[in-house]
């Protein structure tokens, strides 16, 4: 493994363990409520959910079906909170690739190593991607085991499809934060851009289903390429995932070119 | 032999603020070059340009015969940043091992020897190191791969006097093995004992490059001579380079500009029992350069109004 990748993973190690534990705890907590909900259809059934305002149901991804295994898993874990946890984790890791070390000054020595600047960004991204993959793999195994334990009756392939989407979405936002950090050298703007794109993107994708005025914006929302294919119900939306992966590559190339051109630490 | 550093009209502006303008600098193989100037004069800007951390606004430079944009050349350089940032839970020894690996391999023993010389503890997490200990780690990483060219930005900051002596010995060894050193400082005293030449930079411009030996020759020094019997004043009057002459019985004291040759020859006619020569105050010459260029700047400024 190239020295910069292993160094990056070493720097991320503690953070990765914490995120894995945190996301795992989230899964564990929410999935442990499932038996109670599936046994009380009359409380959590469609009639109960219909009481919520329409816009709120849209934001929560519809909430048509809360009591079946796949419906619960989707509404509670894979609609909003699961992806958002991955997005925040990846954005923080992305910020630690360039912007944070540049602000604290540790990047100065790194750029004077006999490593091409473009390779430096690429290897930092590789560490980010591998780290995030580790978190995704560990939490997938946990989610799969847990869903089997509480009899959710969801095929492991479908969970894998949804989890892959969450990983790709997270990686996209990690690359976004890395790209803004690589271009500006500052943490603040990187986090701000990620925040705006993530929250805005999510609202546009969910509300846009029923609001014509913004529905055309859905196709620029990263969440569209994860949520629209309903992976938990329909399996891998290959085309959509390729778009997410492609956009990530574009962001990575932007980061590489931007960082290669500019002064570091001024 | 080609120069280790060669720059022509090297200029760097940060937006509209001048960092460095029209630098023509040559650093020769095997020399220790002292790069002097007050804080903010452009020393760090020059160094960061040479290492491709920042890019010139205009001008040309070559380092070890190639463009610093070529990453391979940086493997032949050891660099100590002026503001070295080391942080986190990582141990200094792990960080040094990482840097060594990227630079093509440095043996553990080599690192241990340097740590021992500088009395550095590498088992402590870097975030908890004091300023002086961080500086030691910085010096170890700069020296450990035995680079052909060492660039040290304010290397002695935070080091205690004993470690400073050890550091100067390390610099002399580097020169002894024919390698080159560029070290910056804002005080001459820090570099005058090891540097062969010094360049003085002020407000983004190189105002002088001097041989340290020549600088010493130009230096003003006080000399006191004591004889076994009173001497006549006339024999010491009007000697070239002698000023502020005082003759009191058997002792003569004066200030020398440049060479003390004439004075020594005049004194040789009598029996000298004791001679005191104060260390030349290079700092004074150095400050003269500063103030001269300051006046010049002032004139430019007035002319510009």
Question: Could you characterize what this model shows?
Answer:
The complex is a heterodimer of chains A (266) and B (305). Chain A is mainly α and 266 residues long. Chain A has one domain (3-34, 79-261). In chain A, 77% of the residues lie in helices and 0% in strands. Chain A contains 16 helices and no strands. Chain A starts with a helix and ends in a 5-residue tail after the last helix. Chain B has 305 residues and is α/β, with parallel strands linked by helices. Chain B has two domains: 5-213, Rossmann fold (3-Layer(aba) Sandwich); 220-277, 2-Layer Sandwich (Alpha-Beta Plaits), CATH 3.30.70. In chain B, the strands form three sheets. In chain B, strands 5-6-7-3-8-9 form a six-stranded mixed sheet, with helices on both faces. The radius of gyration of chain B is 23 Å and the shape is elongated. The model of chain B has no long low-confidence stretch (mean pLDDT 87). The interface between A and B is medium-sized, with 24 and 31 residues.
In terms of topology, how is this protein built?
The complex is a heterodimer of chains A (266) and B (305).
Chain A: H1 3-32, H2 34-38, H3 41-44, H4 46-50, H5 54-59, H6 69-78, H7 81-95, H8 99-104, H9 107-111, H10 117-149, H11 156-184, H12 187-207, H13 212-215, H14 224-227, H15 231-234, H16 238-261
Helix pairs in contact in A: 1-7, 1-10, 7-10, 7-11, 7-12, 10-11, 10-16, 11-12, 11-16
Chain B: E1 5-14, E2 17-27, E3 32-36, H1 43-50, E4 58-63, H2 71-74, E5 77-80, H3 92-102, H4 108-118, H5 131-143, E6 149-153, H6 161-176, E7 180-185, H7 188-191, E8 197-202, E9 205-211, H8 212-218, E10 220-227, E11 242-248, E12 251-257, H9 261-267, E13 272-277, H10 282-304
Parallel strand pairs in B: 3-7, 3-8, 5-6, 6-7
Antiparallel strand pairs in B: 1-2, 1-4, 8-9, 10-12, 10-13, 11-12
Protein name (chain A): ABC-2 type transport system permease protein
GO molecular function (chain A): ABC-type transporter activity
Organism (chain A): Planomonospora venezuelensis
